[in-house]
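Follow-up to my earlier ticket, as requested here are the two runs.
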Amino acid sequence: MLAFAGWILQVTFAERNHGWMLPARSACLATPRRGRRKAPSKKGFGAAEAASPVADAVEASSVVSNDRIYSMPGLYDMAFGYRNYKEEVEFLIGQHQRLHDGKAPTRTLELAAGPARHTITALESGNIKYGIALDNSPEMVNYGIETAEMELDVDSLESFNYIKGDMVEFELNDFGTPVDSAWILLGSLQHLTENEQVISCFQSIYKAMSTGGTLIIELPHPRETFSLIECTRNGWEVPLEDENGEESGELEVVWGDDNDEFDPIRQVRQFTVSMKVKGAAGKETSPDLQSVREIVPLRHFTAQEIDALARISGFRVESMHGALCEGVDVKDDLEAFRLVCVLQKV
């Protein structure tokens, strides 16, 4: 998940207003890589299987100043709408089952959850019985709750709980039964730039987790850490449609720009992140749809660092993968583009 300090774009759902939405996508696409593209093309992150993973449409109101993390949930949700959440949840559940003789987790915790798409998808598909999402942004929490209310049936909605909290240090005492599996996805752990923060986060998860529980972390592949002498642009474009299914423009996303400052001692890159809505040719965009550009410090982790931090915190690394997708070896030079670590509480 990503910290946006400075701007907030409020969005409302299609039942109330009309505006932008994402078109249907193919079943399995991947994370965008360096360069600009209309649609990612390799396996891994995944694309939405059918319609937009955000609400059917969104309308923007005025932009106001806000210093909280994840203050633009609507744009964030659109930017990552290409991911195949169903496939990724199946991978997450499958990794837990592999370590528990085929038994799926009953209760899960998604940290720095943002729109909480993985938890909502897991509940919607019946993969879990109870899902908790946690984020320290009130905008993201409210957005996730609204999304769950729209997409989950009554029984599943009763099993969903989104709480405002800091992933660095938290307690789930009010929820009684410990969680079986915890997820830190979309590189969210990168926001914890100091070892003390990571250890505190892992220890908080340890306390909230049942014995033998799993912690699954998704990060950029370590090869990126060793190729940052000259930072290059990583961006993609999300096509948008109006309420009639006609092309209305695109959302341009930049996730790291040329010559971002990188500190090789701390392994922290000053990530340039920008999102901009552009109207299609001959169509005007709403004057309220503003572009946003922020500089976000993000840490790059190596595999051995994750192993050491896990051991300190009471976990062990059981396996590493090159994507949130079955069959991608972390050492595969062509297919592996993420570092997915499966940890188990010992």
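Run two:
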Amino acid sequence: MKYIVIIGDGMADFPLEELGGKTPLMVARKPHMDMMAGNGFCGKVLTVPQGFPPGSDVACMSIFGYDPATYYTGRAPIEAYAMGIKMEETDVAFRCNLVYLEARLPKVLMGDYSAGHITTEEAKTLMEDVGRELGSEEFRFVPGVSYRHIMVWKDGRDRMETTPPHDIIDKEVVGYMPKGDGADRVIRLMSDSQILLKDHPVNRGRMARGLVPANSIWLWGQGKRPYFPSFFERHHVRGAVVAAVDLVKGIGALAGFDTPRIEGATGYIDTDYGAKARAALELLKDRDIVYIHIEAPDEASHSGSREAKIEAIERIDKDVVGPILEHTGPDVRFLVATDHATPISMRTHHACPVPFVIYNKGDGRARTGAYNEETGEKVFSGEAMVTLFLKGD
């Protein structure tokens, strides 16, 4: 038996008046997912245990079958692992976003958590200068992809409260600055970055083109080096991950999966869906299980665009689910899930049970169902869902 897991990040939503009281998942044209729902086992999964933040770090960890209560140390160290960043046991990694802070005097708001989805090339230049001017033996800045970067604090503090910038879009930032032990050091780095980036040539060029500047770093998601038992140790199958974002690749790498780079996979709405499907099919030839993660619905929700979210869901069905169904044999079992809800009305993540479907391609039935927020009744933990998926009973 071969296994395919397809994660549509943030696909679940709330009913929208503009959609006649339906959700984007309900109105999107997705015949392949709906067929699976009609012919497979449907349920709901609680990916975010009580007391945990409703982020993709916690939620995707659950979908890989790892209980966050046991294994979660923070978001940033997972991404650092994916990037190959070496961490000592006392080091603390922080996620370092390049953001756009908007001055609406006397207030300063989180104008854009991604600095207008800044290009990787522009971001690399900015982060190299941040590292040169603000880095030290104590603080190390490592450029990543687009707005997503890492800061490692040697012998750092991790017992503080930080806020993801995508949770505070259009909100005044003063109430969401880091709090707790070591917060003053982190705030100082953020403040110093604003002085450095204010008139940076990259930002002058962006503003000349009508784009928002990356005028600050934002530090959050801190944690120490994590440890997972391998997926093979737990389930005796070997796997790979097809993903663009370092967070999901990091979870996969910690689980012992291969995490190849997929050309054209961007972690945004413009990702190459077909490339992900082709990569998964190739990887499945000599692996037992392949996880495919598509970030696009989540990014559409953060931007508040129901049209883009519907399009992303439809593209997942047409360009990922469809081709994999077409080019696999009857000995393949599918799991289609979303990691968490990202309601367009909130423009951030929300913790609630979300739908999943397990489908055995060889069952030979042809009923049509509906995969959406109303799918399934019984609620599973992530670990129980993965065990059900792999055991098949």
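The only thing I checked on run two: The longest helix spans residues 306-326. Let me know what else you need.
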